[in-house]
């Protein structure tokens, strides 16, 4: 039986609607989680520190790495905030926090800011998790305030000074020259080294990674932070960390190669270690479900 033109048109419309529905479903599955809510700012030592706080339960503090911000936790926080009160901060000098050029940005200074921030937030003790440079800060805080931080999570921690083989801390004076060179294209190349799952490198994520570096002050903060990365005490005092430590790593890490995982982990006395075969430097971005499962199991373990 021959079909009239009205039937054909109706069939094409239904087919187009079906394909559109399928496309929307695919895009929803690929879309990022809802944007982080509840942004706050608090003054610490005269400078504004941006943070977010979500969830219920025991406190968990998240500390990002060098060049990053609270944005890197966007895929992890929704998986943790049902069982933990998650507080993620923009370190002074990064993200939307203030970037005072006179600040030292060394290990002691950043630790002092975090301890003062927790005091102002009336958080007496909390679990602490840090990524890369944030992992180094978390391990140092565990060393100097063991009662305040009963458990520590270190995600590819920059805990060996040999990782930062270049010392840029005295090159802040070049920031007027360096800053214009930090283009979106440059940041995208960095992101390709940080993130293994290239589908996560979108216009949105590129904007969040790049936008803090529109100012000279951000470049100064970045260069000065190399004094933190090269601080010998982080690695030399790892044995002093008595608390349970969970170390998570990505086997595809191009920033802190996987070979450092064993070296750092061997110095930690009370340590659990897991690596993901398809994660780069940021397991919390590449594999948030796996990361959340490991963190939740570790923190709820008696």
What structural keywords apply?
302 residues, alpha/beta, Rossmann fold, eight-stranded mixed β-sheet, 13 helices, 8 strands, 15% strand, globular
What are the SSEs and their pairings?
Layout: H1 5-30, E1 39-44, E2 47-54, E3 59-63, H2 77-80, E4 85-89, H3 107-120, E5 127-131, H4 133-144, E6 152-155, H5 175-178, H6 184-194, H7 203-210, H8 216-224, H9 226-229, H10 232-236, E7 245-250, H11 259-265, E8 271-276, H12 283-286, H13 288-300
Parallel strand pairs: 3-4, 3-5, 5-6, 6-7, 7-8
Antiparallel strand pairs: 1-2, 2-4
* CATH class group: Alpha Beta
Count structural domains: 1
What is the average per-residue confidence, as pLDDT, rounded to a whole number? 86
What composes the largest sheet? 8 strands, mixed
Can you list the strand order of the major beta sheet? Answer: 1-2-4-3-5-6-7-8
Helix content: 40-55%
| CATH architecture classification name | 3-Layer(aba) Sandwich
Radius of gyration: 22 Å
Can you count the helices?
Answer: 13
CATH evolutionary superfamily: Alpha/Beta hydrolase fold, catalytic domain
Structural category is alpha/beta
N- and C-termini, Cα separation: 72 Å
CATH topology: Rossmann fold
Tell me the β content: 5-15%
Please write the string of helix (H) and strand (E) elements.
HEEEHEHEHEHHHHHHEHEHH
Overall, the morphology is: globular
Please explain how this structure is put together.
This protein has helices at 5-30, 77-80, 107-120, 133-144, 175-178, 184-194, 203-210, 216-224, 226-229, 232-236, 259-265, 283-286, 288-300; strands at residues 39-44, 47-54, 59-63, 85-89, 127-131, 152-155, 245-250, 271-276. The chain is α/β, with parallel strands linked by helices. It has one domain (41-300): Alpha/Beta hydrolase fold, catalytic domain (Rossmann fold). A hairpin with a 2-residue loop joins strand 1 (39-44) and strand 2 (47-54). The N and C termini lie far apart (72 Å).
């Amino acid at each position: 039986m021959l079909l009239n033109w009205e039937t054909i048109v109706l069939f094409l419309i239904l087919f187009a609607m079906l394909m559109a529905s399928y496309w929307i479903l695919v895009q929803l599955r690929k879309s990022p989680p809802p944007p982080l809510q509840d942004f706050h700012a608090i003054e610490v030592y005269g400078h504004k520190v941006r943070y977010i706080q979500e969830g219920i339960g025991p406190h968990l503090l998240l500390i990002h790495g060098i060049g990053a911000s609270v944005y890197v936790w966007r895929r992890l926080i929704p998986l943790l905030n049902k069982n933990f009160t998650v507080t993620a901060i923009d370190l002074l000098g990064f993200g939307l926090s203030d970037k005072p050029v006179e600040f030292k940005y060394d290990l002691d200074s950043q630790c002092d800011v975090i301890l003062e921030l927790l005091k102002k937030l009336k958080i007496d003790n909390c679990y602490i998790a840090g990524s890369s440079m944030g992992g180094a800060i978390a391990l140092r805080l565990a060393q100097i305030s063991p009662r305040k931080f009963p458990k520590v999570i270190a995600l590819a921690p920059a805990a060996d000074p040999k990782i930062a083989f270049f010392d840029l801390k005295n090159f802040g004076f070049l920031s007027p020259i360096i800053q214009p060179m930090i283009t979106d294209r440059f940041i995208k190349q960095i992101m390709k080294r940080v993130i293994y799952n290239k589908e996560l490198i979108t216009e949105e994520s590129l904007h969040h990674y790049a936008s803090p570096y529109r100012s000279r002050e951000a470049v100064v903060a970045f260069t000065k932070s190399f004094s933190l990365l090269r601080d010998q005490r982080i690695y030399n005092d790892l044995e002093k960390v008595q608390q349970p430590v969970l170390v998570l790593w990505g086997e595809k890490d191009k920033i802190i190669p996987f070979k450092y995982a064993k070296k750092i982990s061997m110095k930690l006395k009370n340590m659990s270690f897991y690596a993901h075969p398809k994660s780069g430097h940021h397991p919390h971005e590449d594999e948030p479900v796996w990361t959340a499962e490991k963190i939740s199991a570790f923190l709820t373990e008696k």
